[in-house]
């Protein structure tokens, strides 16, 4: 397992490292990138940027936040959070089962145990695992 602490200053290095691993890692069937951080820390932004950089390969994103999207508007309701996480995990598994080279999962994962099912699935299926911890850097990029 690789782990990176992402800030807006080192994102390009992390993107390049992950894309290189996607192209060069022949030991793993697929690569799983778990993007974790507090709300507003840039998880979705990081995941979408990584997906764009992987466009030449089969990659997908799974996010609990997508459960709360109605059109282009986000309507969070904590009562449905377990359903949102279940949907995210099922999409993650489907993505890899359908042959994606990489699955990018962007969820808060504020406690390590929340990643357990994903990590366990990786080890059971010989997927390479990368964890990216996001932290909001108050640079002009986000203002």
Task: Provide a compact summary of the structure.
This protein is 36% helix and 22% strand. With 143 residues, the chain is an alpha/beta fold.
Detailed description of the structure:
The protein is an alpha/beta fold. It starts with a strand and ends in a 9-residue tail after the last strand. 36% of the residues lie in helices and 22% in strands. It has helices spanning 11-24, 43-53, 81-97, 116-124; strands at 2-6, 31-36, 59-63, 69-70, 73-74, 102-106, 128-134. The strands form two sheets. The protein has a five-stranded parallel β-sheet with strand order 1-7-2-6-3, with helices on both faces. Strands 4-5 form a two-stranded antiparallel sheet.
List the uncertain runs: 138-143
Secondary-structure-based class equals alpha/beta
Write down the secondary-structure element order.
Answer: EHEHEEEHEHE
N-C termini distance: 33 Å
Which SSEs are present, and which pair or pack?
Layout: E1 2-6, H1 11-24, E2 31-36, H2 43-53, E3 59-63, E4 69-70, E5 73-74, H3 81-97, E6 102-106, H4 116-124, E7 128-134
Parallel strand pairs: 1-7, 2-6, 2-7, 3-6
Antiparallel strand pairs: 4-5
Helix pairs in contact: 1-2
């Amino acid at each position: 397992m690789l782990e990176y602490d992402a800030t807006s200053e080192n994102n390009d290095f992390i993107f390049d490292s992950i894309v290189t691993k996607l192209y060069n890692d022949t030991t793993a069937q697929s690569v799983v990138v778990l993007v974790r951080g507090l709300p507003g820390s840039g998880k979705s932004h990081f995941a979408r940027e990584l997906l764009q950089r992987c466009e030449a390969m089969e990659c997908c994103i799974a996010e609990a936040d997508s459960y709360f999207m109605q059109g282009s508007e986000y309507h969070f309701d904590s009562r449905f959070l377990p359903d949102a996480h279940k949907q995210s995990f099922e999409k993650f598994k489907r993505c890899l089962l359908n042959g994606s080279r990489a699955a990018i999962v962007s969820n808060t994962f504020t406690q390590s145990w929340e990643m357990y099912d994903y990590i366990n699935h990786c080890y059971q299926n010989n997927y390479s695992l990368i964890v990216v911890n996001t932290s909001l850097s108050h640079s002009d990029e986000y203002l």
